[in-house]
Amino acid sequence: MQVRTNILMTTVVAITLLHPADASIAAQQSEKPPATASVDPRAAQPERPTVATHAGTVAPGYLEFETGVELDRFADASRSSIGTLVTKIGIASHVQLSLFSSVVRPSDNAGGFGDFGIGAKWRIVDDHSVLGDFAVLPILTVPTGSFTHGSGTGTTAGSLWLISSRDLGPLHLDLNVVYTMNDGRGVNAPQSSWFWTMSWGGAFTPKVGWTVECYGVPGTGSAVGAPPLVALLFGPTFTVHKSLVFDFGAIAPIAGQQPRAFFAGVTYNVGRLW
Question: What is the CATH number of domain 7-272?
């Protein structure tokens, strides 16, 4: 039976609903548009397939969906899977509302619907000399999933993402640092944890992009803690239409209990709501 803990799960549960011992994360797109560019409001702004999110926000009044599936294989040959849905709504020129949901099938349990999350990304500054495009993203996650069946953490969690994005010639760089606090007195998950991620993206052609990312989770103590983890994510993206982007790729462990994983997903900008 695969032993699984909850460090990353409560941090990015809205995106992946995974435990830190298998901190593979359904991802976010490589070619993230600069926040200050004159972006077509119907152009998709995927936060897939990387762990990192970018500082950009959906245009005010517009709706965008991201969905994907990830298949994990652990060192003991056990397998798990997760499907995710992120709903993004532009609230203002620099503010985006995000709703996170998932379905989880762990390797050793029945699974089911995961915890639900809600967050608001606020782009504070554009083109700063040090921070680049800088945004903050607080997320509140509530225990709608089942801890017994392995689809939820059994805790209410609050996380804060610090997001820096910039273009470096033909390349795009996203840096994220995330801190999470959980309730429950550390019974199901550590009371506090954090992780970091660095994502690079670029374009092979106007329609085909690429992404490479390295992310890590420092180790935590207590009975529900986990050793440090570092992993590498990579894969191509395909722009079928300005409003429709597909992605797929793989995640490979560098250190820790990260499983090998394959993922695929799609981002679609539905259009204007108001």
Answer: 2.40.160.40
